[in-house]
Structures are given as C-alpha cells and as structure tokens.
Design goal:
The protein is α+β, with helices and mostly antiparallel strands. It has three helices and seven strands, in the order αβββαββββα. The longest helix has 19 residues.
C-alpha cells in the first residue's frame, strides 16, 4: 500500500455566500442528482451527494449490517491511525469470508485531490464516480506484498476517504483487477452509507 508522504503543499480557504430566503439556492449550488458541496481544487464546485468531514467520521460505522451481508465481510477491526494521513485520521480494516482479499478504509485529512495527484501521480490515477462521489482508482502490484487497489473518494474539500483491497495472503488467485473489483464494490457500498451520514 502506498502512503501519502509528501507534506501538504496547498491549502485553500473557501468563502461563499448564501441566500437569505429559505429554500433559495446558495452561491455555487447546482441542480441535479448530486449537489455542489464545495471545491477540492479551489476552482469549481465538486458534485458530491454530501460533503462529510473526515475528521468527524469513524470509518468503522460505514460497515453496516447490510454492507457486511452483501459483501461477505467477516470481521471489522479498528486499526491505529496512519500519521501519513494527517492528525485525526482513522483506519478500519476488514476481512471477507472469501480470504482472497482484505480491505481497509482510511480517512485522509491532510489534503484532497490536488495533494493526491502530487503524491500518487496524475498518470497513476484513473478518474471514476463511486456512489455519486468523484473518485480516483490506483491499481498496482506491490513488490513483496502482491496485488492492491486504492479507491479515493473526494468526500470533502481537502479530505478523502480511501478504500482499498489487497491480495496475496497465500492466495495465488489474487490479481490487480480482482483487487480493484473488490475495492470498488466496498467503496460503492460504504460510499452510499457515507452519503447518509
């Protein structure tokens, strides 16, 4: 698993205005299925189902009974936070009935999409939309560890929700494509829960 190790290079201060009349849209609000909830890059509003502050989120709460049942999640465990992801980040890991892959969910609170592009590299990221959130997928074979895939959801300005899947725990059938399929399934499921937080 790749860690974000480069210090935050850019901080954006967002300001806006809101309508004084109830029910009137605020500046930057879009119509459609995903409201504009801010700007990760400071240039344009980001269409998200809901902006969720990652500093206030316990990622283990995203593993609802429905998510566990649908994906065959066997065990969910809170893990120590990773310093690389910022002060106040949190980690929750799981394994599945099918032991080919395991997964983790991380809250990244020290930078958003711009920082992700700088630390992981624009060329390594495949843009996607997951559970209505802008997302970025990074699948690769990690030397000595096996196949892995990270799915980054743009959950809040300057913050990301990272959902990953890793294989290779004695399972010869794990692949990068399989890790990405597993990470995307989990990201879709927990992203839907995130939008209700």
């Amino acid at each position: 698993m790749r860690r974000l190790a480069v210090p935050l290079l850019l901080a954006a201060v967002l300001s806006g205005c809101s309508a004084t009349e109830p029910g009137s849209p605020s500046a930057g609000q879009q119509t459609g299925s995903a409201p504009a909830t801010g700007s990760s890059t400071g240039s344009a509003p980001v269409a998200r189902p809901k902006a969720v502050d990652m500093k206030a989120l316990d990622p283990c709460t995203l593993y609802t009974a429905e998510v566990k049942s649908a994906l065959g999640v066997r065990l969910v465990t809170e893990r120590p936070a990773l310093a690389d992801y910022g002060q106040g980040s949190r980690t929750c890991s799981n394994n599945y009935e099918d032991a080919t892959y395991s997964s983790s969910i991380y809250t990244l609170v020290n930078g958003g999409v711009d920082r992700l592009r700088q630390t992981v590299g624009e060329a390594e990221l495949t843009p996607a939309r997951v559970a209505g959130y802008p997302a970025y997928v990074d699948g690769r074979d990690v030397s000595g560890l096996g196949p892995a895939c990270d799915v980054y959801l743009d959950a809040h300005d300057g913050q990301l929700l990272l959902v990953n899947a890793v294989g290779g725990f004695g399972e010869d059938r794990s692949t990068v494509d399989g890790a990405c399929a597993q990470a995307k399934k989990l990201a879709e499921a927990v992203g839907a829960v995130l939008a209700t937080e």
